Structure formats: C-alpha cells, structure tokens
C-alpha cells in the first residue's frame, strides 16, 4: 500500500482510527484476492456476521475471523491499540518499553508487557527464515544487567555471554546480524550457533579464541586473528560497533533486562537492524510477521 509507506504517527493514527479500519487492513493482507475459506478452501464472498466480526463461508458455514491464527487471536485489546503497539515497536530504533506502551495506549502494564513480547516473538520467527551468508564477522560480548550488585560488576562472572554474527557486503559494510545468548562460550555452542544462523561454506572471521577453531570442522572457512586494536584497528570493527549499539539499546530503552528475557530484546534489536534500510515499510512488514507468527499465551511467556 503505497500511501502507507511514509506515514507519520499522526497519519498512522488517522488511518487506523477505528476497529473497522484495522480489520479491513488485516482482511486485505490475509485475503488479497478476496476471501478464501480457511477450512474448505472455497472462494467467494462470505456472509458477514457483523456483530461478532466473523466471516462465514457460504459453502461449509465455517466462521473465520481476520485475527484467527495470529498473535491477536481472541484478544480483548482493541486492534487499534495492537496496531499502534506494532507501529511503535517496529519503527522506533530505540524500541518501546512495556512501561511506555502502557502509558501511550492506556492499557494495563501486564497487557503491554504481553503484547510487546508477542510482537518480539513474531520478529524472532521472521528472522529465523534467513541465514547469514558471504563474509561473516563473529565475536562474543558479555552483557550484564545493571540491576545486579554493582560491586560484582565488571568481574565477568555475573555477565551473560552473547555471540553475535554480522555479515559484510562487498565493500566491507555491515549487512545483517544474528545474536544469541549462550550458557558458556565454548567450541560446541559457537559452532551450534553458526550451524543454525550461517550458511554452510561461508567465511567466518573471529579473534584468536581457540573455541572458534571448531568452525573449520563444521563446514565453514574460518579465519582467526588475534585482536590487536593498535596494529589492526579494522579487525571486527563493525561487529564491535554493533555490539556496543546493542548494549546501548538494552540499557537505554530497557535499563538493563533480566537474563531470562535478554534473548527476546536482542531478537527485537536484530530484527530492526536487519531492516534498517526499509524503515518506511517496517509497520507493514511487522504486522505481516505478527499475522504469521505462532500464537502463544501469556502463561507460556511467564512459565
Ligand atoms: Zn468453507
């Protein structure tokens, strides 16, 4: 939808000011060529059960909704608020904390928290469709929550290792990233990360940590170089920039996050980073991700 691509927040609010407008948008995204019954596959105008926002197939009487099978399924929160949450989380590179969502959307904190985690999960699932390829920089960073005992900080033992892979373009510019929280930094976990997130045969640059040598036994071209910021300042340069941006994001927007949810905030960062050149399309892309992500309940989030 061309008119949507450069929407300001004001235009966005006007465009999606009613539940009907949101539902129509979802209908068009879900059935771009007209209604198709999800049960029997018949096409053709359904009966509209307006009071319950359902579409009933004229062939088999199945009642379908635009939100069935999406993260908005059976939600009690108005779609208008979901749309705004998706807009805020996807289009601001600093993201949007549950506290801010609560205030902006006038919803309960728990609801804001659940909605934002569901959106992050949709972002994660979307990014899982892609692997890094070509030339990859790989390194690990250590993330510590500032809420942990300040006296302990900096020792390393209370920090969580996160491995980051960054693919570089032909001119050495950063392209896409993947990042994962690890239990420990060892050859097994690093090569498992690479096997899932990086295309077989790709070239991986790392520092001299011996654990990385395992990569060359797992079908990757591995080049290691001892980190030397004085004589070789460009080695893993972009990767270090990305890691420090990720740390700034976690501390700035979320003021440090509990280890249990660190991965989902990292997924959010990676999702936006990987689409930073499609800023205008972020809402449309993210709502598409939300329509196709696996729905899960608040209970599953907390459990
Ligand atoms: Zn049907």
Structure, described:
- By secondary structure, the chain is of the alpha/beta class.
- It has ten helices and eight strands.
- The strands form two sheets. It has a five-stranded mixed beta sheet, with helices on both faces. Strands 1-2-3 form a three-stranded antiparallel beta sheet, with no helix packed on it.
- Strand 5 and strand 6 form a beta hairpin.
- Helix 4 crosses helix 5 and helix 5 crosses helix 8 (259-274).
- The protein is elongated.
- Residues 146-156 have low confidence and may be disordered.
Overall pLDDT: 88
Morphology: elongated
Largest sheet: 5 strands, mixed
The total beta strand count reads: 8
Q: What percentage of residues falls in helices of 4 or more residues? A: 25-40%
Name the ligand types.
zinc ion
Q: Taking strands numbered 1, 2, ... along the chain, how are they ordered across the largest sheet? A: 6-5-4-7-8
In DSSP terms (H or I, runs of 4 or more residues), the helix count works out at: 10
End-to-end separation in angstroms reads 39 Å
Approximately what portion of the residues adopt beta-strand conformation?
Answer: 5-15%
Structural class by helix and strand composition: alpha/beta
- CA radius of gyration: 22 Å
Q: What is the chain-wise order of helices and strands?
A: HHEEEHHHEEEHEEHHHH
